[in-house]
């Protein structure tokens, strides 16, 4: 293994704040990586993911000070309030000044007309897409209320023939009825009655519903793609799949049915277990031990474990308290970001390599894929494939601390690897050869 990791450009080197902790996800948007921001916690007087989850579900965690949805939505919008031109926060403005929102995207703020004019050449490149991001940011609340995701159909095509979103959509028939149901739900009215912006056109809301649905399904379909690419057979034996590095993104709103699309993909399978493992796993319905014995056929069993993966392996897998995985998937591990994250992931990466575990990781964009590949090659991983993910989320993700950065998409690219790079064998020269 090479002694040094590849040098990364400054834009890919956020700080080393809390590599593994309950708070690290909340630093993500403050370090040029999409995700929840620690500012949200401060604005809502929350201390952890559990309180945040309870709040968006409409519960009233002890000590939370907002009195209704209108105030909650307003406080969440407050986390985006700073001047995009000079980075001034509301409390730093001069008397009489106030932050005003771009009237086109309703997503970024400016303290003066001068800041807006100066920033326009950069902002105009992303203004249209940031308008959609702002809509999706509010519409995501419907997932916490159970209105999204909408139900899907059993597949009428073999998995091998479903190669992209268009193929998946072709099996769903007319989505109008499902979309109409969400458009007419009481929570939709509550949302736009209390949001700090006018209700968008119905066409925009329908498109937002699809984008949020695609993000939810992207993880499941990516797992299904990995099952197929590694030639795993869910009909010959039960499969165990570990989601390594699972965080608030996968577990904050997790439900026991989140991976049931696998039942549609692999009908009459012998049983599939999905175990979320990570130090930022949020308590919820799936927080239960993994199976000791195989679960029921034609069902997906979900469980979660809070902790580092290599420790989970020692405590659960090696002691046979849980099954060894047939497949490991990681969504946006982020070990490309800095030396601290590489070191934090190193025991897990070496474990996956040395135990020859079929593994697929997803990343946000081509640049992240490039630097992740460099690191994996230095670890002598046997890289089997990489490239654009045909089941990438269609919902754009905004970098909060730098909103004019071009948005990225969850699981837009992937890298698939297994075991150690094969060694080149050289035949011995024939006797008498020089």
Automatic annotation (TrEMBL):
Q: Which UniProt keywords apply?
A: Metal-binding, Zinc, Zinc-finger
Q: Which PROSITE patterns match?
A: ZF_MYND_1, ZF_MYND_2
Pfam families from the UniProt entry: MSS51_C (PF20179), zf-MYND (PF01753)
Q: Does the keyword Zinc apply?
A: yes
Q: Does the keyword Zinc-finger apply?
A: yes
Q: What is this protein called?
A: MSS51 mitochondrial translational activator
GO MF annotations in UniProt: zinc ion binding
Residue stretches making up the MYND-type domain? 83-127
Lineage, highest ranks first: Eukaryota, Metazoa, Chordata, Craniata, Vertebrata
Species, as recorded: Neogobius melanostomus
